[in-house]
């Protein structure tokens, strides 16, 4: 990583004692204050470009920033915290978690019992694993999550046109796929509750 953090030189190391950058310190519009790892640093400066390319949209599309935030909060921040030894809790943990991405990447490294340890091959496997999961999150938030929001927003517009008060009818979606986004959109538009159309045709408030 170059032993330093220097954006101009494309050095994205975070092991220096003087390093204390967070997403918030590098971009005051962002709320996250977890100390960044090299993963978070690279994501901070190149994540939007990658997201736009993966989703096939222009970098200034509002979708890019939305997905950038969701992927950081639900994927990258965990990596930053684990790499910096930041726990999710205070005090004694109830149990240990050893199946996160950081652990699975570490498990790919050769052990002391390997007669011919191949670190280069292990590194390639680690990159492939990380790439697959990163792209999965980008595609999920950029297509599934955002697609549900679009449906809910369209339904809200229809509600206004039809002069329905405090009710929302969502078509062509199951409750499970849009409940989260629907609640947030409804709350943002002043709704106290929504009417959901279930697969059975039954409506519930």
Radius of gyration over alpha carbons?
A: 21 Å
- Give the helix proportion (percent range): 40-55%
Strand order in the largest sheet: 3-4-5
- In the predicted model, the low-confidence regions spanning at least 5 consecutive residues are 170-179, 181-185, 191-205
3D architecture notes:
It is a single chain. The chain has 205 residues and is mainly alpha-helical. Helices cover 52% and strands 5% of the residues. The chain is built from six helices and five strands, in the order ββαααααβαββ. It has helices at 23-26, 38-55, 62-83, 101-106, 119-161, 175-188; strands at residues 5-6, 11-12, 169-170, 195-197, 203-204. A three-stranded mixed beta sheet has the order 3-4-5. A two-stranded antiparallel ribbon has the order 1-2. The termini are far apart. The model is unreliable at 170-179, 181-185 and 191-205 (pLDDT under 50).
SSE layout and pairing:
Elements: E1 5-6, E2 11-12, H1 23-26, H2 38-55, H3 62-83, H4 101-106, H5 119-161, E3 169-170, H6 175-188, E4 195-197, E5 203-204
Parallel strand pairs: 3-4
Antiparallel strand pairs: 1-2, 4-5
Helix pairs in contact: 2-3, 3-5, 5-6
Task: Tell me briefly what this model is.
The protein has about 200 residues and is mainly alpha-helical.
Task: List the main descriptive attributes of the protein structure presented here.
3-stranded mixed β-sheet; disordered C terminus; 5 strands; mainly alpha; two-stranded antiparallel sheet; 6 helices; 205 residues
């Amino acid at each position: 990583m170059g032993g330093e953090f220097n954006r101009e030189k494309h050095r994205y190391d975070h092991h220096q004692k003087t390093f204390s950058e967070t997403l918030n310190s590098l971009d005051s519009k962002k709320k996250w204050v977890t100390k960044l790892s090299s993963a978070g640093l690279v994501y901070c400066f190149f994540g939007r470009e990658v997201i736009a390319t993966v989703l096939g949209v222009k970098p200034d599309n509002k979708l890019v920033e939305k997905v950038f935030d969701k992927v950081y909060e639900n994927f990258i921040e965990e990596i930053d915290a684990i790499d910096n030894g930041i726990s999710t809790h205070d005090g004694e943990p109830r149990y240990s978690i050893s199946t996160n991405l950081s652990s699975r990447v570490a498990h790919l490294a050769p052990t002391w019992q390997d007669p011919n340890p191949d670190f280069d091959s292990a590194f390639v496997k680690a990159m492939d694993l990380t790439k697959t999961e990163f792209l999965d999150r980008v595609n999920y938030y950029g297509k599934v999550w955002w697609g549900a929001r679009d449906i809910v927003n369209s339904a809200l517009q229809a509600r206004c046109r039809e002069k329905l008060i405090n009710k929302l009818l969502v078509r062509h979606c199951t409750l499970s796929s849009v409940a989260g986004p629907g609640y947030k959109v409804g709350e943002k538009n002043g709704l106290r509750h929504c009417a959901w159309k279930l697969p059975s045709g039954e409506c519930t408030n």
